[in-house]
Specification:
Helices cover 78% and strands 0% of the residues. The chain is an all-alpha fold.
Length: 200
């Protein structure tokens, strides 16, 4: 039975699991990274691992949500340009979001196959909770734009689905090829920005 950890130890172990997990998932992917790999890298027992996460998939989702939170915070602190119109500003914000995504190898190499495998392995309520977080972000995103004088003319549900669609296109990056992906995303981002602002 794993020993009891102090609060300080728990925080340190959780941080180590996230750091080592991100590194291993980047190198080997979700399927080829085992709980044994994670515990060895973090310097804990397998029994101790399950005190923190019910599965390696839960750890990966926790890491992904941490990265997503950093990216969302960047969008919410983005400074809009006074010399640009609504469409141009929204396009720049979404483009910046996608550029940031490329800064994280875990996201850049995350494929449709990885996504579907992750969703299959996670409890349905955990997947739903993650989806609910997306709704919270879109509400904050819309509020941020309103504060900047940019009016979003489509319902939050539509904005959420359009941004998710950009994410799903990203899952097929390797199938498209990098050049085709970059070209397609530039067009799609511009179309989404134009649609949600409707020329505002």
């Amino acid at each position: 039975m794993p020993k009891a950890f102090s609060d300080h130890e728990k925080e340190a172990i959780r941080r180590q699991l996230r750091e080592q997990g991100q590194r291993l998932f980047e190198i080997h992917g979700l399927k080829k990274t085992s709980v044994d790999d994670l515990t060895q890298a973090a310097g804990i027992s397998k029994g101790a691992f399950y005190l923190f996460y019910p599965s390696k998939e839960e750890l990966l989702l926790d890491i992904l949500e941490q990265i997503e939170a950093e990216m969302q915070a960047s969008i919410l602190h983005y400074v809009v340009r006074n010399d640009a119109n609504a469409r141009q500003n929204v396009r720049a914000m979404l483009s910046n979001f996608l550029v940031m995504r490329d800064d994280y190898p875990l996201l850049k190499n995350f494929s449709q196959d990885d996504f579907m495998y992750l969703v299959r392995k996670l409890p349905a309520e955990r997947v739903q909770a993650h989806s609910n977080q997306d709704q919270v972000f879109i509400a904050s995103f819309t509020q941020k734009l309103a504060q900047e004088g940019i009016t979003i003319r489509t319902p939050p549900r539509v904005v959420t689905n359009l941004i998710k669609s950009l994410f799903f296109v990203g899952l097929h990056r390797h199938e498209l090829g990098d050049d085709a992906y970059q070209e397609s995303m530039a067009i799609l981002v511009d179309l989404v920005a134009g649609y949600v602002t409707e020329g505002a």
